[in-house]
Amino acid sequence: MARIKNIELPSEKHTCIGLTAIYGIGRPLAKQICKAAGVEETKKIKDLTDEEISSLRKEVDNHTVEGDLRRDVQMNIKNKMEINSYEGVRHKKGLPVRGQRTSRNAKTRKGKGKVVANKKKAGE
Questions:
Q1: In 1-124, where do the E strands start and end?
Q2: Nearby residues of 6 by Cβ (< 8 Å), 6 or more positions away
């Protein structure tokens, strides 16, 4: 099994697909890394040689991925919250940040509905 950045890559998948298991690497970047490392994209990860794995490792090291990227993203969010930007306020309130509607959807961000006690209907 290939290990890059402390992530076990799925051995049954093609190289360019398996690299996407690493946080911060998507399909386009995975293809770019394969090309730069000189590894065939369609080769399964279990069939890679040690030299190919080490060349992939060197290429991945040139990019910000996994822990460093997660830390950067969290620091950016914290910074927005501190300066009270619109996005930061939305993060604090637990609402969608990127302009989505909240009247109907947004259940993922807002959570389960909160019960309001003793709310009477307008006709009573």
A1: 3-4, 7-8
A2: 66
Query: What amino acid is encoded at 98 in this protein?
Result: R
CA distances from 93 to 59, 84, 90, 97 (A): 39, 12, 5, 10
Strand partners, 3: 8
Q: Name residue 8's beta-bridge partners.
A: 3
What secondary structure letter does DSSP report for 44?
B
pTM check: above 0.90: no
| Cα–Cα distance, 56 to 15 (Å, whole number) | 10
Amino acid at 47: D
Residue ranges and CATH numbers for the domains of the chain are: 3-63 (1.10.8.50), 67-110 (4.10.910.10)
Instruction: Look up residue 73 and give its two tokens.
Output: 């993203």
Q: What is the pLDDT along the chain (124 residues), one digit of tens a residue?
A: 788 888 999 999 999 999 999 999 999 999 999 999 999 999 999 999 999 999 999 999 999 999 899 999 999 999 999 999 999 999 999 999 998 888 887 888 888 777 777 766 666 5
